[in-house]
Amino acid sequence: MGYRVKEIVYTLQGEGANSGKAVVLCRFEGCNLNCSFCDTDYHGIDGHGGGEFASADELAEAVSERWKGQNDQPRVLCTGGEPLLQLDEQLTQAFHRKGFEILLETNGTIELPGGIDWVCVSPKEGREPVVKKGNELKLAFPQGNPDPGRYLSLDYEHFYLQPISGIDLKSNTRLAVEYCLDNPRWALSLQIHKYIGIP
Question: Between the N and C ends of the chain, which has fewer C-beta atoms within 10 Å?
């Protein structure tokens, strides 16, 4: 099986619990949802470092070539679109053979393959996540869905609200701040990559 990748970029993780850490961002092409508020271009394989990779080892090698860190644990951030349309255990094993810690950002609608080291689920309105356990749940807010508190029964270490960007970013941020203040199990996640102008 081949892998279609929009882009492979060495950058800083821009949001959530790993915000600010160096990662190789591997953005897979395609998604199984069509969210009206999506702010990511995951169509095509024409981004920086993107392309079609014939094997897991070939993609893992391309990711490894992008890592520039010196003595730290290398990290790959698998994202999309929806990375689990393509990310499989062959690829997680190939990343591990290269020494990578694997961070995943998913909408949680597809079961996980083995070998993921850090699981971040970002549930979307109208789609109940099938991934009910992980490291962080990061909810784009507000989506017009019921109270975010309904997700607190899931087995996650961290719960984040992330204001939806766009023309309503200022009001969405205010709403997220107010909700976090009233519901302290939730923390605010900001997309720092957008503030500092990196991928």
Answer: N
Taking the C-alpha atoms of residue 148 and residue 161, their distance in angstroms, rounded to an integer, is: 9
* Structure tokens belonging to residue 153: 């029964």
Which amino acid, 86?
Q
Residue 177 makes CB contacts below 8 A (sequence gap 6+) with 188
Q: Tell me which H or E stretch contains 62.
A: helix 56-66
Is residue 199 over pLDDT 80? no
Side-by-side strand order, sheet with 133-141: 51-53, 3-12, 22-28, 75-79, 101-106, 118-121, 133-141, 155-163, 186-188
Question: Could you state, in order of their start, the residue ranges of all structural domains in the chain?
Answer: 3-196
Beta-carbon-side half-sphere exposure of residue 38 (alpha carbons within 13 Å): 18
Q: Is residue 157 within 8 Å of 118, Cβ to Cβ? A: no
Per cent of the chain over pLDDT 90 is 77
pTM over 0.85: yes
Provide CATH code, domain 3-196: 3.20.20.70
User: What's the mean pLDDT in 121-143?
Assistant: 93
